[in-house]
């Protein structure tokens, strides 16, 4: 009898617990849907009641297009999670990311998404506005136009090596070695390169561009490159870092849906993430120690920070900054050049105009540098238009409202607010033919190729590097690299798209590009034909 009563009591307790959980879920959902301070804003119903909608589009790679579709359906302000609003207007961008309008105005600080696994955060992930500003000031000199001009010799070295390598007639053994290394790293996205008469005619250009950008930033951050371009071989460390980029984005899912953490120990990708992350921390720390030991013997990212023996910087802090520089300044730049390549190949007349501008301006590729390329209007218009269509980051960058106005709406304190560059860059309110590649819209009005049909375009609606106090500190470096790399590729080579590349074909950049914190890119098969 006692045993039966015990079983009944246990069953009743389970039932009551289940009922309580269901009542809580229903009550919470009802509150979020009808009584929450953000209940008046439109958006998907699932997004209003739980974090699942946003977590799903974050993890399945559809975030960029899903947010664009949500804004097309619901308007310029969309509720994308119970406590999150996404805005797509120029004024909202200014209000959230720009400088405070008054000295004593509260600012929209970074949200919990920026919390770092690293015990010593880099300035880019610091949520406190004052700490962020102080950290940013330490690096402002390194990214100034003057400083980058002094660093250009390091940058040009890798770009010129890159140009020689993609025209190198003797890469067969090296490429076989690269294939073997890729297999050993269990990366099954096989990168095949076809050679004809000893010349590479078909290559996944994005792989090479990743090597190039990692070598440049690795040298400027650590004083030592990864050697990928010189050896034409993928570095295990580069693969490790890229894996951290993408798998690490699961942290945002775990933050939004804490129950998902229960499955983390059983996910091979998460286990590999922690293994790669710890290995990368060790690698970066060793590199930082070597850089500190060299002292301030050269102009690079850390040269002016590293003082004499009595004023050595904190190793962990320098490592954190180096990690952020690698994350922000490598794959993003490779993506941008990849986008430019695809759009130009699909617009032969545009490519022809760019070729004419570059090939009539320069007589030798050695004339192409950070200063000479600034003066080419069509080149710079091509870059701006490609950045509009494919901004460096596909995600929305969250801020926490202090209780203030965003585009005329008062947003309660504690609300997470975001702006989505990809959607704003393609909003028909701001752009004529918003999904089409037309560099002419960014030309000066006095340029003979400027098209008046774009006169109503709002160029302020293109913010690939954010704005105000949150402007990407590496903006000048990115533009420098983009101008020089694109100019040299156009000057030295004729380009041909392979038969598998283009709209509706096996590789369609617009269709196959997906968003998982960084852009996940399809292979970009291009034939490089050296000019005589």
Automatic annotation (TrEMBL):
Keyword Cytoplasm in annotation: no
Chain sites annotated for binding heme: 472
Biological classification of the source: Eukaryota, Fungi, Dikarya, Ascomycota, Pezizomycotina
Superkingdom as given in the UniProt entry: Eukaryota
Family that this chain belongs to: Belongs to the cytochrome P450 family.
The organism of origin for this protein: Fonsecaea monophora
PANTHER family per the UniProt record, alphabetical: CYTOCHROME P450, CYTOCHROME P450 MONOOXYGENASE ASQL-RELATED
TM stretches of this protein: 12-34
Keywords, comma-separated and alphabetical: Heme, Iron, Membrane, Metal-binding, Monooxygenase, Oxidoreductase, Transmembrane, Transmembrane helix
Needed co-factor(s): heme
Pfam families in UniProt: p450
Signal is among the record's keywords: no
Protein name per UniProt: Cytochrome P450
GO molecular function: heme binding; iron ion binding; monooxygenase activity; oxidoreductase activity, acting on paired donors, with incorporation or reduction of molecular oxygen
């Amino acid at each position: 009898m006692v045993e039966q009563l015990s079983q009944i009591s246990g069953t009743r307790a389970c039932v009551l617990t289940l009922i309580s959980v269901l009542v809580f879920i229903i009550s919470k959902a009802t509150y979020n849907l009808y009584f929450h301070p953000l209940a008046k804003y439109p958006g998907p119903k699932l997004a209003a009641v739980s974090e699942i909608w946003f977590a799903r589009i974050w993890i399945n790679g559809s975030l960029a297009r899903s947010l664009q579709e949500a804004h097309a359906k619901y308007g310029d302000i969309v509720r994308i999670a119970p406590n999150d609003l996404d805005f797509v207007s120029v004024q909202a961008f200014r209000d959230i990311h720009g400088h405070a309008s008054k000295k004593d105005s509260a600012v929209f600080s970074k949200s919990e998404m920026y919390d770092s696994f690293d015990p010593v955060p880099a300035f880019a992930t610091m949520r406190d506005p004052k700490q962020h500003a102080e950290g940013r000031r330490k690096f402002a000199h390194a990214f100034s136009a003057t400083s980058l001009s002094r660093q250009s010799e390091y940058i040009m070295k890798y770009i010129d090596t890159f140009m020689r390598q993609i025209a190198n007639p003797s890469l067969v053994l090296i490429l076989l070695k690269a294939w073997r290394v890729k297999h050993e790293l269990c990366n099954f996205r096989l990168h095949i390169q076809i050679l004809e008469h000893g010349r590479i005619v078909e290559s996944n250009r994005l792989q090479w561009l990743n090597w190039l950008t990692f070598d440049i930033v690795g040298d400027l951050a650590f004083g030592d490159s990864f050697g990928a371009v010189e050896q034409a071989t993928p570095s295990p460390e580069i693969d490790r870092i890229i894996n951290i980029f993408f798998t690490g984005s699961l942290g945002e899912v775990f933050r939004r849906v804490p129950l998902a953490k229960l499955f983390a120990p059983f996910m091979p990708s998460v286990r590999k993430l922690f293994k790669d992350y710890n290995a990368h921390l060790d690698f970066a720390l060793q590199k930082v120690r070597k850089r500190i030991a060299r002292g301030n013997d050269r102009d690079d990212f850390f040269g002016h920070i590293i003082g004499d023996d009595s004023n050595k910087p904190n190793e962990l802090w320098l490592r954190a900054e180096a990690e952020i520089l690698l994350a922000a300044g490598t794959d993003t730049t490779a993506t941008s050049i990849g986008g430019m390549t695809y759009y130009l190949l699909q617009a032969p007349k545009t490519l022809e105009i760019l070729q004419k501008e570059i090939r009539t301006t320069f007589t030798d590729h050695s004339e192409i540098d950070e200063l000479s390329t600034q003066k080419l209007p069509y080149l710079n218009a091509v870059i701006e238009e490609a950045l509009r269509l494919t901004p460096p980051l596909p995600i929305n960058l969250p801020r926490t409202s202090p209780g203030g106005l965003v585009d005329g709406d008062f947003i309660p304190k504690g609300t997470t607010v975001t702006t989505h560059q990809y959607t704003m860059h393609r909003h028909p309110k701001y752009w004529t033919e918003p999904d089409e590649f037309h560099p002419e819209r960014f030309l000066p009005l006095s340029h003979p190729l400027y098209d008046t049909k774009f006169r109503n375009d709002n160029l302020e609606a293109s913010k690939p590097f954010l704005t105000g106090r949150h402007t990407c500190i590496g903006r000048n470096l990115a533009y420098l690299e983009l101008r020089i790399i694109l100019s040299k590729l156009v000057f030295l080579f004729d380009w041909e798209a392979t038969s598998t590349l283009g709209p509706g074909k096996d590789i369609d950049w617009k269709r196959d590009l997906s968003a998982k914190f960084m852009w996940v890119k399809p292979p970009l098969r291009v034939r490089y034909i050296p000019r005589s």
